[in-house]
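Suppose you are handed only these lines of text.
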Amino acid sequence: MGGDVDPETVAENLAALANPLRIRILLALAETRRPSWEHRGMRYSDLRSAVAVEDGGRFNYHLNELRDQFVRGAEGKYWLTTAGSRIVDQVYARTFSGAHEAISGPVEWHCPAGEARLDATFEDGILTVSCPNHGVLFDMRLSFTAPRGRDLDELFAWANRRALWYLESVSWDVCPHCAGHFEELTFTTRSLEPDTRLETLRWDTSTMVMAGLRCRQCGVSFRIPAFHYALTRAPTIAFLHDHDIDYRTLELEYGSPSWACESEVLDDGVVIRFAIDDDQLEIELDSELYTRSYRRTSLTGER
Ligand SMILES: [Zn+2]
Ligand SMILES: [Zn+2]
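From them, the structure of the protein bound to zinc ion can be written out as follows.
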């Protein structure tokens, strides 16, 4: 696992962080991001007074331990490297702060396969949304500081937007975890409980096409309903928009009562059909998830 990662080098570099004064130096340097998001340098004297260390030798020693990997300096100025900046982001996100609050309670959403109100739990940085009858419907890892000033419905909305961003990234062959490339896409078909709601469309909704991808670099696998990818495509965004649905606010894992869809594997891709009221959109994605074609029709023939 981990490909070409050298654990010795990583451990050595991380060891340079294991000191509270060094963390204070990183946080002081991060202050230079406040006026604007540029990476300005900070003068040595300003940095030293910001962390308030009397002993110059001690300060220099700790600053030196951070140099190259987390901090760079030239002409009497110091700034965070990308690694230093990433560490500060995670410090602010309380990733390394130990105990974290857990919250749970009902959300506004209801199970699509019943009337049950859904429950959400945010624990150990993971938001989980579940149905009392059908178990977990959605989960997503968020920042530990995510619940600050946000309720569970807001967290769920954000988690869904993040899931859409994941889909966009995966569609561009960029692993959202490590930026690696993916192995070849595979389509499989999953059986579902038949959905009587769509009987009038004479669609086969007893199965759902799943798109599977695995990152070559970190090995993370995604197995996602293929229609999710179609949701982020321009023809679908426009189709939903024409029916007053903002695709960014979609709840992904359990469909929506306002639209229906079916999916079918082709020799070299997948076809997804969406229906809202009497309008239909048929969209074909090729085996690399690019939009090959789309067609809109109206059952009433007015469009
Ligand atoms: Zn349910
Ligand atoms: Zn990856």
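What can we learn from it? The pocket of zinc ion (ligand 1) is lined by residues 111, 113-114, 116, 131, 133-134 (CB under 6 Å). The chain has a mean pLDDT of 88.
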